[in-house]
Specification:
alpha/beta; Rossmann fold; 5 helices; 5 strands; about 50% helix
Length: about 130
């Protein structure tokens, strides 16, 4: 089974000598999950890698899940529900959550508070 890595986890994993990244790798390896990313995370991380002239090879080895019409329909509903409940969410987080929900996958993030609003809609977070 796949696990979707949020950009904050990917960034830590790619950083050399990052205790947080090392711990994330250990947790992923000790699970039966194969890490993947969404096309949204691909954009976010590539922007930073290009901006700071960092190597891409390790990052480009992750399988990438696309953002579909079905995901767009769900993410717009997720974003609106979060806004109505008084917990507005980042659009990109709603998009990642929709991809995860529609594919029956969990998300691994260090920014749990960004995704909590989507748990009532079926989002699973890795490690919970």
């Amino acid at each position: 089974m796949l696990i979707i890595l949020d950009s904050d986890v990917v960034i830590e994993v790619l950083q050399k000598k990052s205790p947080k990244g090392d711990e994330a790798v250990k947790q992923i390896l000790s699970s039966s999950e194969q890490p993947c990313i969404t096309v949204i995370t691909l954009h976010e991380v590539l922007l930073g890698l290009y901006k700071y002239g960092r190597p891409l090879r390790e990052f480009l080895q992750f399988p990438v899940l696309d953002y579909t019409k079905k995901d767009a329909v769900l993410s717009s509903k997720l974003e609106l529900e979060a806004e109505k409940s008084g917990n507005p969410a980042l659009r990109t987080d709603a998009m990642i959550a929709a991809i995860a929900i529609n594919n029956g996958l969990s998300v691994y993030t260090f920014n749990v508070k960004h995704f909590v609003a989507f748990k009532t809609q079926g989002l699973k977070l890795f490690g919970e």
